[in-house]
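Backbone geometry:
***
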Amino acid sequence: MRTCCPLSVRLFLLAIPLVLSGCFSGSQLEVSLDNYTSRLAYVLDTDLPQPQKQVLPPLASTDTLIHHIAPVNINLREFHALNGCELNRLVALRNTSLGKSQLPSQRLVYESQVVAELTSCKNSVATSNPELANKLAQWAALKAQDFTLTWANVIQTSQELRLALNTPESLLSAENNKDALASINSLYFLNAVLPPNTNDVRNPVDSKELETQLHIIRSARLPATLWLTQQTLYNSLSELNLTLPAHLDAISCPEGRASEQAKILRNVFYLFFIKEIQPVGSVVNQYHYKLAPLWDDWMERESLRAQFRTYIRQNSEEGFKHYQDAMTTHVEMWQQFLKRCSLSPVAPS
């Protein structure tokens, strides 16, 4: 038990750390959680577990997730037969050192061009060279499969996506989350690049547009930021959910009349949880439900490695449920306390 000030003095002292909190580094949410826990501990005159800095679980390495795509072998006679097609140039480009060192996004553009040109070339020689047209149709089917694996490589191994999925730069705030909504659109754009049926890969991917969308995804890093935020909230609130009930139950509210200490606790709950922490939770919910259909789709994509899909599931489903349960339990705990003491959750103005 700490040496305690009288409640009237403590009510005055409660506001002092508010001025100091802006001097400490960290996200606003981390500051709010730290202030919330510290003020509760102070009013209750006890020690409460302080929030711990969180990190996301690691994403499997690029070497583990990458698909190594075998080249389609074209003999010299077949290559020269393609002289009238743009495909000839694409095949030649792939055999250069530049073509072999393409980034995942550039390779995706290239593969889309190959599939589109194979179809076009097949149609152009269908009458004059049926044998070659048949060969081109076989190649088109193979390259459509390669396009799917190349898309998976962009999702799993490109620097932009790996940063977006596993390396947050901050936590979400109640407002002003940089490029967040734009990055949701960008992620859905990237998903739409791969049609449900690989035989529908007819038009080349626009390289400039693809790079623009990847830049937005990298800048926002929304999935990783979202998941780290929900993990941070879960960790802090679940600790409080274990330790606070006994302390709140010990607060005297005779015949439903709130004591001075109960009123101060309600003020702490209102100032820090309702006004600062809960709005961030609302943002977590908003972004989670906007992205949920995308994660559901990815978890069904067999072209994505099992380890990758497990990582998505752990964060988007299991992590969100842990956060949601902790938030619900925390609110219900306070509702019971406030009801017992006949208090409104909103402090009087």
In short: The chain has 15 helices and no strands.
